[in-house]
Structure formats: C-alpha cells, structure tokens
Amino acid sequence: MLDTLVSIGSTLKEIRETKGFHLQEVAEETSINFTILSRIETGKRLPTKNQVQSLASFYNYSEEELIKHLISDKIISEIQNEDLGIEGFNLAEKKIKLGSELFNSYKNLEKFELQSRRYIGNKAKLTDWIIDILKKETKGRNTFIDIFAGTSIVAKSAMEMYDVVILNDILYSNNITYEAFYSTSNWDSQKLVEIVNKYNSLKATSVRENYFSKNFGGKFYEKNISKIIGYIRQDIENKRKKDFINYREYAILLTSLIYTIDRLANTVGHFDAYIKKPIAAKPLNFKLIQTFDFNGAKIYQEDANILAKKVKGDIAYIDPPYNSRQYSRFYHIYENLIQWKKPKLYGVALKPEPENMSKYCTVKAKEAFKDLITNLDVKYLAVSYNNTYKSKSKSSANKIKFEEIVEILEKVGETKVFEQSHQFFNTGKTEFNNHKEFLFLTKKYDR
C-alpha cells in the first residue's frame, strides 16, 4: 500500500499548513466540499484533476508538480493489487522517495513562508488590520521599530511602508530568523539546495545517537527523526566552522531547520510539555525558507528597555509578553538548537537553566512597560494587547490590566483604542469567550 505520508493528499496538507490556511478557509475559497478535502488530505480518496488545478491556483503552487503526484498515485492505485505491477510500483516509489531531489534550483524549490511557523501570540491574522490603522492614523515613513518582534510578521509588513525597520527580540531563535529572512548579505542558493538534497537523503540507520536524540527522541520528536535533526544541526555547525558556508547561509539553514521540524514536534505548538502518546513516524522533508531581503533592516538582540534608550524613529510597535509564560522557556528547544551549547537539562520538559527571562512576565511588568513607553524616542506608539487578563487561568492572566495600559499611555500622548475580535491560540486548557485584540495608538506629546 502507498504510504499516505507521501501521497498527493499529504502533499496538499503540507502545502496548506505551510501557507498557514485552515481547511475550512480552503473549502470556502475553492468551493471544494470540506469533507471531500478532508478525505483527500487523509488519503481516503484521490482528488480530480480539476480539484488539483483549483488547489494549485489557490496555493500559488506548481500545477505541474501536483499533477505529477496525482498521476503517480493513480498508477499506484491501479497496479498495487496486480501481480505484474510490481515494477511499476517500484518506479513510482523511487520517484516519490527522490522527489525532493528533483528540484535543482532555489527558484523551483517549494519554500517555507514566514507566517507558516507556529508561535504563541503570532499576529499573522491581525497584521493587515494593524497596518491599515497605522496607514490611516500616522504620518512619517522613515523608521519603524518593532521592539518585541517575535516572528517578525508585523515588521515584514512594515517593510512595505518604511525605509528602515528595526527588529529586536531577546531570543536567539528569533534573532537568527531575522538574519536569515532580511539580511542583504550574499549567499549561494545552489549550494544550499545541494545541502538540502543531502539532508533529505539521510537515513536514520546510518546516523549515530547524538545530544538531540538522546534528550528529545521519543519525547518531543520521534526517535529516528531526532537522530537526523541532531546530525543536521551538527553538520551545519561544522560547515560554518570550516567556512564552507557564510553567516547568512548559516542563518538560513538554521531557520529552515526550525521551520522544517516545527510541524514534526510532538507538542501542541510549544515546548513546555510533550504529548504522552506514541509518535508517528514521518519524513523530515527539509525545505528552505523564502527569503525577503530588505536593505533597511536593522537587527538587534537586546533587552527592549535598554534598546529603547538607544534608538529613535517615527513609530514603535510594542507587543510584549503579558502573562507569566516565559517565551524563552516555551521555546527552549529552539533556543538550545540555535545556541548549540548542549547544556545539562532538567525536569520532565528537559529545559536548561533559565536564561533571557522577561520582566513582562512578572509582577514588575507594569513598571517595565512604563519605563519603556517613557524612554522610546518616537512620534507614535502602537501597542498590541488582548483581553486574556479576564482568563480564569493564572498563567494566562495578563500582568498588566487594560486600564493600566491606558493610564500609562495617556500620560505621554493622545491615545486612541481600536479593537478586533480574534481567536486566541492556546493549548486547549483555557477557554476565552468574546476574545478581542486591542491596538492602542498614541501620538506622543512634543517634548
């Protein structure tokens, strides 16, 4: 039987998840029945050619490549029960296994988009709303400061409006992604494609146990996949030390590794815990990111309150953590993977010693926010905020209340409040009714 993980269905599912769409959205936009789409993605039925063409158009994906997958699956479906069909089956299987190596250039390689990574507080679905407000309500298009940039989804949209965009985040795993996506340093795409092809040909049986697999295998990642992840990470480090790759290439490979393993993690989207169930084996399918070179990107990795005293601009976008969940702990595996110091790990979640802990996740949050607002040398302040402070969960409850945000902002400038209904990402343990996202926009008083 054909493994559904490499069928047309699983390919379409992977494309959808990479693009960041929900199945219901695709059904509505393509007019393909939701149930039929679900059965296609789970391998319970094959799509028609018209359906493949419609999905290829919606996903902006190569129709030719998807049709090839469909034809291959049809052939396998026809011959798998035929005694004389074994040669055809083997040929189709070879084609599937070597599929990732059929791409011979970065241009033709399916790539990860910035928004496809899972991340707590990701503003991917709110960015257009935020940017539209800034366009209508602010003046000055020179410098945009994203001082808690996170995935940088808002900063990326700001690059279409501003000459200079400052990106800052204290996490190593976020800082490296900024270097990968936005740096203008030269890099050899063909070299990286060849490296990716080698990574995709790796077999777990030929890879030794390593730091990553010994600690995270069978827990956060399937055992064989964890061996390959650890091997790839060390190989990237070795290539950098030998100057086989430059720093931009190093950043692109590391960021691509994060994006590749994100959907393979045995978690609900972060690394505070892993799911206590057997982990299904899946192929690694290493892919590169889609870079977005921007001449005006200035990248920092500093405490936001310290950086605020060093930079100036037209507007500062502020989206700090508001509850007690420390991002450096939520994403400790990525932090570990990027730094690659191989520290001693503790507890069930296998976390290293605490590092880069934010004051905004503590009782000091209000004073830290006040200090930040006071010291930012900008014309406008745009502050994102959600109403999880009403949550019954102590860990989800905001450390700064709505009224406190308003009070602090109104002391430094004229403040407007915008709101938008929004489905909040959570682990499934906390219920949020009538959840809203707020944007406070303050025009600072002249000093």
Automatic annotation (TrEMBL):
Q: What is its EC number?
A: 2.1.1.72
Q: Which organism is it from?
A: Tenacibaculum adriaticum
What the entry lists under CDD domains is as follows: HTH_XRE (cd00093)
Q: Which domain of life is it from?
A: Bacteria
What is the name of the protein in this document? site-specific DNA-methyltransferase (adenine-specific)
What UniProt keywords apply to this chain's record, in alphabetical order? Methyltransferase, S-adenosyl-L-methionine, Transferase
The chemistry this enzyme catalyses reads: a 2'-deoxyadenosine in DNA + S-adenosyl-L-methionine = an N(6)-methyl-2'-deoxyadenosine in DNA + S-adenosyl-L-homocysteine + H(+)
Return the SMART domains for the record. Answer: HTH_XRE
